[in-house]
Amino acid sequence: MSDRAYVYYIKPIVDYVSSFMLLILFSPICVLTIVAIKLDSQGPVFADVPDRVGRDRKPFHLYKFRSMIQNAHNLLRTDDKFEQLYEEYKKNSYKIAGDPRITRVGKFIRKYSLDELPQFINVLRGEMSLVGPRAYYLDEFTAQQEKYPDTKKLINKVISVKPGITGLWQVSGRSEINFDKRVEMDAQYVDNISLLNDITIILKTPWAMISGKGAM
């Protein structure tokens, strides 16, 4: 089987079937996470965040369990008390160590990637893949391309495929990797998409989740 045949015919089927089965498998954990979020803080169960950039720059709503205070994304950009935090956020490739907006339950579910479980819904909707590049925010793309102009050549390649729940950079350091290196690794993944590479990344994902290495 050629890699092209895998990408266009086999991978979508594997994504759909696997996501359906995994969503059922993890449903008890999802229920417990929902209860914990509602008991811990006010706000919706799912993160209230802007759309992400999908394949061919098509925006889509990414489902994640809420791990921060309500309206955290907007407050970071509009509330004066978060002005310094927002500058740190942009400076550190859109990641913040010790983010004060994260709730108590949020710290736990982010560390073990439980907040990512609802993304199986995105896979079932055809918006994401099990394995693929990171799903970036639009403003993240714009700002980080200015900071790392060399990444512009790689981004078109990255968005030529569906973003993934897990991927090469996620199992290689997660939040510890800056934007330029993440895009480079995402482009490397696109250049080498194959069944074997996807299986390798999937097999590495549970350890990345359990260890919590690089999580923020």
Automatic annotation (TrEMBL):
<feature type="domain" description="Bacterial sugar transferase">
    <location>
        <begin position="11"/>
        <end position="210"/>
    </location>
</feature>
<keyword id="KW-1133">Transmembrane helix</keyword>
<dbReference type="InterPro" id="IPR003362">
    <property type="entry name" value="Bact_transf"/>
</dbReference>
<keyword id="KW-0812">Transmembrane</keyword>
<protein>
    <recommendedName>
        <fullName>Bacterial sugar transferase domain-containing protein</fullName>
    </recommendedName>
</protein>
<dbReference type="GO" id="GO:0016780">
    <property type="term" value="F:phosphotransferase activity, for other substituted phosphate groups"/>
</dbReference>
<feature type="transmembrane region" description="Helical">
    <location>
        <begin position="16"/>
        <end position="37"/>
    </location>
</feature>
<comment type="similarity">
    <text>Belongs to the bacterial sugar transferase family.</text>
</comment>
<keyword id="KW-0472">Membrane</keyword>
<dbReference type="Pfam" id="PF02397">
    <property type="entry name" value="Bac_transf"/>
</dbReference>
